[in-house]
Design goal:
alpha/beta; 11 strands; single chain; globular; five-stranded mixed beta sheet
């Protein structure tokens, strides 16, 4: 598991009907070793956004700002587990919100292809902006080697993209089958917190009103998949949960 820092967020974004109390959410990712090489899932927040004060404060409107993010959050997170951008055979981003796109420039420089849902990329290019927490400088470069998906897909042996729209029009989650610890479902932002899973309450933020029922359906899908596969279902921004499941390379000390 990778940690790119933490961000302050109104709880109402994570849980439908919740208050605007500011909670601290880890910015996470995962590196998976497969028969096809290392696969990166999520690229965190970027130094470029952190240094763009106007854009950063437009997205993080509270007094608190992202923290625990080294000189470059992406490179620091990889270094902590002994990896470099060029070590990956492919990568994927669940959606193009700013806390998931920060490492794309490094992956493009290393020639790493990046999977994304076609509908998400189209939405980001044609409609989304800072008001929706999309930061175009992270994802507009023609050097990014996009691999566009249309629904569920196997990305590498043991790693699947699961189409879970709602939080954004092209959001996807992941299924990862590990030989020693079984099946993991990474909900990403289809379920930010354990509260989403325990209480069956979907995230509170969607880009369009039409995405609200899709967010409900995606949460129910993940819960069904977890039961059917006897899988660990991991919420995307729950600090207590991520500390509990974090598995550093080489094991815990």
């Amino acid at each position: 598991m990778l940690t790119y820092g933490a961000e302050p967020s109104p709880k109402s974004i994570s849980v439908r009907g919740a208050s605007d109390e500011i909670i601290w959410c880890p910015i996470i990712g995962a590196a998976v070793e497969t028969a096809a090489g290392w696969v990166l899932l999520e690229t965190g927040i970027g130094r470029r956004l952190l240094e763009d004060e106007t854009s950063r404060r437009s997205i993080y409107a509270s007094r608190e700002q992202p923290w625990g993010v080294g000189e470059d959050p992406f490179l620091a997170a990889l270094q902590a587990v002994g990896l470099r951008p060029e070590d990956f055979s492919l990568a994927a981003v669940s959606h193009l919100h700013v806390d998931h796109t920060g490492g794309l420039q490094h992956l493009s420089a290393a020639g790493v292809p990046v999977f994304v849902q076609a509908g998400e990329l189209s939405f980001a290019r044609e409609r989304a902006g800072i008001a929706e927490a999309y930061y175009a400088p992270d994802y507009v470069s023609e050097r990014i080697l996009w691999r566009e998906l249309d629904g569920d897909a196997e990305l590498a042996p043991g790693v699947w993209a699961l189409f879970t729209p709602g939080h954004t029009p092209g959001h996807m989650s992941y299924r990862v089958d590990l030989p020693e610890s079984g099946t993991w479902l990474l909900a990403v932002d289809a379920a930010d917190l354990s509260e989403n899973l325990n209480d069956r309450v979907p995230p509170g933020w969607t880009a369009d009103a039409g995405d609200v029922p899709r967010a409900d359906n995606s949460l129910r899908r993940l819960l069904r998949e977890a039961e059917n596969l006897d899988a660990r279902l991991v919420p995307g921004h729950d600090g207590f949960f991520w500390k509990a499941v974090r598995h550093p390379r080489g094991g815990h000390r």
